[in-house]
Amino acid sequence: MLCAGKKSYFAAAVCIMTVTSMLAVSYLKIQRLSHQPKVIQEGRGCRGKIAISTITALEGNKTFIISPYFDDRESKLTRLIGIVHHEDVKQLYCWFCCQANGKIYVSKAKIDVHSDRFGFPYGAADIVCLEPQNCDPTHVSIHQSPYGNIDQLPRFEIKNRKPETFSVDFTVCISTMFGNYNNVLQFIQSMEMYKILGVQKVVIYKNNCSHLMEKVLKFYIEEGTVEVIPWPINSHLRVSSKWRFMQDGTHIGYYGQITALNDCIYRNMGRSKFVVLNDADEIILPLKHPDWKTMMNSLQEQNPGTGVFLFENHIFPETVSSHMFNISSWNTVPGVNILQHVYREPDRKDVINPRKMIVDPRKVIQTSVHSVLRAYGKSVNVPMDVALIYHCRKALQGNLPRESLIRDTTLWRYNSSLIMNVNKVLSQTMLQTQN
């Protein structure tokens, strides 16, 4: 016996720890070997049909693939962003077709369902597969078995395969637009504020919106600011407009918002220096700096090694208005005029205000809505005297009188540029009534 002849408790403890460590190392080695790609076919071309939908259901309708991304931050692997049933999906395999040598490799996937599922049976998941070392596959197929015919499986293009140089500093990810969204004026104001603050790209995961909103999106797409990702999640799952499971038979919360946010981070990992995760009715307002670039340079200098910056959310109730900036030509445009809402709710006792984020996407592995779940860098809460999130929406403390609210006119620092830019968009989209 390995531990024979040891008399002292200390020696026994050392012995047990040694054996445990050896077993753990052996187990991890076996696990890694089981996930190594194996050749199953040779001399075949890659003939499966390429998937073109944003959301693709696999056989059995328990797994839905959004998109695969090459990820070499730890090892050479493909990370597929998807949605799975957290109990029913136990085993998946990646099928890689290597055009260079005509071989088809199968790799057992690690299925990592995100911890922030909020009780729903379906949740965001990373489906992670080691790639063959001797080829760089351009496409991958997913199957429940390591056996079968690859020609019958949809093929997904592996994004981020080729390194890119940053084309933009800031990309805003908005997810998800649903419920026949028609808050047109506030959306345009948010877009123009983003641009004033230094945003070059806004990615929107769109489920549905009004015809008027479609017209505005078309304008911003043609301008080059907006990229719309179709998000037909309700064609596959029963979606909830709530974030927490209510025992109502729905499958996934808030139209799959968390999955969309994760996809947006990986989609922009190689092309954007920062990714901003917030909603269309939220604007991160700097208090000490004129724009986000100056603010982030300062924050990074003060917080080296930080990959996630969290900003505190503050509610500016849409029911409490100022008489300032009542612009008559805007009154025919549906939606909220944020310039008239400069009273914010005070902090609530024993309630922590939620936060939204500006992240370095290359340091994020998994994100939730108000924090990252896994990342390489540190996370830092940005003090409120540096910046806050202006969130104009329905009141959370609806019974408070106006005198209990805090007058905060930070937004008005940008009023001249904002009014001019909004008028330009309204004029070009034919939404503005001339007086």
From TrEMBL:
Q: Which residues form the signal peptide?
A: none
Specify the protein's topology with respect to the membrane: Single-pass membrane protein
UniProt keyword terms in alphabetical order: Glycosyltransferase, Membrane, Transferase, Transmembrane, Transmembrane helix
According to its UniProt record, the EC number is 2.4.1.-
Q: Where in the cell is it found?
A: Membrane
What is this protein's record name?
Answer: Glycosyltransferase family 92 protein
Primary site of residence:
membrane
GO molecular function terms noted in the UniProt entry = glycosyltransferase activity
What's the family?
Belongs to the glycosyltransferase 92 family.
Q: Has the keyword Cell inner membrane been applied to this entry?
A: no
**GO CC list:** cytoplasm; membrane
Q: Transmembrane segments in this chain: where? A: 9-28
A single Pfam family, by name?
Glyco_transf_92
